[in-house]
Amino acid sequence: MNTKQHGFSLLEVLIAFSILALSLGILLKIFSGGVNTAMVAEEYTTAIQLAESLMTRVGEDKPLVTGEESGIENEIYTWRISISPYLFNPDHVDNDKLKIQVFQVHINISWAIGHGQEREFDLTSIKLAPQKAL
User: In the chain, count of helices (H) and strands (E)?
Assistant: First the structure.
């Protein structure tokens, strides 16, 4: 009598499907994590470009004066520009004798990511302006 088996048993098929389902679940989780990371990177790239654009405009389109200004871009990104005088260490430099005014410009970009959480990006720089006549 020939007892050679032809084909797969039901148990072997169930085990193969279980392994396949588990593998596909892991792969989908990896791909969704990659997509999420790409979306976060895109949000940060947009925020950085916005901050750099605003920093470039300070001293060009926007005057270098002490104060704050804020706004919203693309109905997503909230920005705030803070300009304050930058004072050097008084032991080394007399701020009153400088022929330039030195300002610290701080730009904060924030955006909501859902569930009441926010992300933000800060950019700070020093800008120079001619000393105003007294």
Answer: 1, 4
> For tokens 């989908």, what's the residue?
28
Report yes or no: 81 and 69 within 8 Å, Cβ to Cβ.
yes
pLDDT band at 121 (very low <50, low <70, confident <90, very high): very high
pLDDT tens for each residue of 27-49: 998 888 888 889 889 999 999 99
- What is the distance between the alpha carbons of residues 22 and 30, in angstroms, rounded to a whole number? 13
Domain ranges of the chain: 10-130
**Contact criterion met (CB below 8 Å) for 123 and 51:** yes
Can you give the pTM of this predicted structure?
0.70
Nearest residue to 73 via CA among 103, 110, 27? 110
Q: Which candidate, 122, 36, 134, 130, places its Cα nearest to that of 78?
A: 122
Maximal C-alpha separation, the chain = 115
CA distance 131 to 96: 10
Rounded Cα distance, 17 and 69, in Å: 60
